[in-house]
Amino acid sequence: MLDVHTATYLINSGTSLTLGVLLLTLKPFQGTESKLYRTIKQYLAYTAFIDVLIDAVMLYVIFRGIGNGFQNSFALPAAYWCQVFFLTSATLMLLHEHTAYRRFLRWGTYPLGVLILLFLGGFAAFLAGHGGTPDPFTHYCRTGWYAALTIAAHILLLLAILGSFVLIAMAARRFSLNVVNFFSGDDAVKIGRARQFFTIYGAYIIVTTLNMFLFGETLSIVCINLRAVLKLLNVIMVFNMEPLLMSTGQKMAGFDVAEEAEAEKEAPLRAEMVESAMKRWLSSKDKPYLKEGLALSNVVDQMGISGPQLSYYLNHYLGVNFNSWINRLRIGEAKRLMEANPQMQISDVASAVGYSEIAVFSRNFKKAEGITATEYRKRCAPEAEIQ
C-alpha cells in the first residue's frame, strides 16, 4: 500500500504532466493564438514538465530507499532554477515587459551555465585521474569539488529567486501604471486583473523555496499540493485572459520611451497644441469619450497628437491619468443623463456612457461623487417614482 508521501508525488507528477500537455495542445478559448502566446504556454509547460522530472526522481529515491541524497544534490537546485527561469520569463511576457525579459535572459542564464560547465569539467578531470574506479560518478559526488558546486547551486538558486521576485514586482508595478495611462473603464479593470499573475507567481516562488530549503514530510506534502493548485490557477488564467492581454500589448506597442522623453522636453511648447486638440475632441457631437473599449491609442489618433504628448499633459497639467480622465468625463455625462431622465435604469445609464459592467460604473461613480448612482438619481427627482 502506498504511503501519503509516495501518493502525493504520483498525483502531482500526473497533474503536472496533464497540465503540460494541455498547455502545448489546447488553443485559447477565444480568438486566434499569437506567436507570443504560444511561447508563454511553452514556458509554462516546461515548468510543469520539470516538476514531472523532479517527482519521478523523488519516487525513484523512495522506491530504492536511497534517502535524502537527491535533496542535497547539485541536480535539484539546478532543476528548480530552470523552473524559476521559465516561470519568470513567461510572467514577464504576460506583463509585456519585453525589455526586462531580454535583460533577464542575459543575466539569468550565464551563472547556471557556468556552474554546469564547472560540474562537467570537474567530472571529466575526475575521470582522467580515476579512470579505473568502479561507478565513477558516485565517487565524484563524494568529492569536495562536488560539495562546493552543490553549495554554490543552492546559493545561486536563492539569488535567482530573490532577483526574479524583485524583477517581477517592478514589472507588475509598471504594468499597473501603464494600465491606467493607456486604458479606460471596463478594460482598465479587466486588464488590471493580470496583476493576479504576480500574486500566483509570488506564492509559487515562496512555496518552491520552502520545498527546497526546509525538510520534513508533512511540510513537503503541503508544498507539493500547493504547487499543483497554483500551477492549475496559472493555466486557467492564461487561457481566460489571452485575447485581452495580447490586444493590450498591441495597443501599448506604439508608446515609445524616446518619444515620451521628447514630449517631456517640449511640454511647455506643446501644451497649448494638446489643449486645443483636446477641446476639439471633447466638443465633438458624437462624444467619443463615451465609446466602450476606449484606449489612449484611439484618442490620440482622433486628436492628431502623439500618445506621450497626451499622457504627459494629463499627468502633469491636469494631474490625472488617462483612465481617471475618461472616467471623470463619463461620470459627468451619467449625471446629466440622470438629471434629464430620472426614470432611467442605472444599467442603461452605465451602458450609455461606455461601461459594459455595471459594477465598474457603480464603483467609479461612488468614488467620484461620494454617493451611489442610485442615491444620486433619487436626489434628481425626489418625488418621482423611480424603478
Task: Give a quick set of tags describing it.
Arc Repressor Mutant, subunit A, 17 helices, Rhopdopsin 7-helix transmembrane proteins, 387 residues, 2 domains, mainly alpha
Structural class: mainly alpha
How many structural units, i.e. domains? Answer: 2
Radius of gyration: 28 Å
* Order of helix and strand elements from N to C terminus: HHHHHHHHHHHHHHHHH
Largest sheet: none
Number of strands: 0
Outline of the structure:
By secondary structure, the protein is mainly α. Helices cover 78% and strands 0% of the residues.
Structure description:
There is one protein chain. Helix 3 packs antiparallel against helix 8 (196-213) and helix 10 (257-265) packs across helix 13 (307-318). The protein is an all-alpha fold and 387 residues long. The longest helix has 39 residues, at 144-182. The chain has two domains: 4-252, Rhopdopsin 7-helix transmembrane proteins (Up-down Bundle), CATH 1.20.1070; 257-380, Arc Repressor Mutant, subunit A, CATH 1.10.10. It is built from 17 helices and no strands.
Write the layout of secondary structure elements.
Blueprint: H1 4-25, H2 35-64, H3 75-94, H4 98-129, H5 136-140, H6 144-182, H7 185-192, H8 196-213, H9 217-252, H10 257-265, H11 267-282, H12 296-303, H13 307-318, H14 322-340, H15 346-352, H16 358-369, H17 373-380
Helix pairs in contact: 1-2, 1-9, 2-3, 2-9, 3-4, 3-6, 3-8, 4-6, 6-8, 8-9, 10-13, 11-13, 14-17
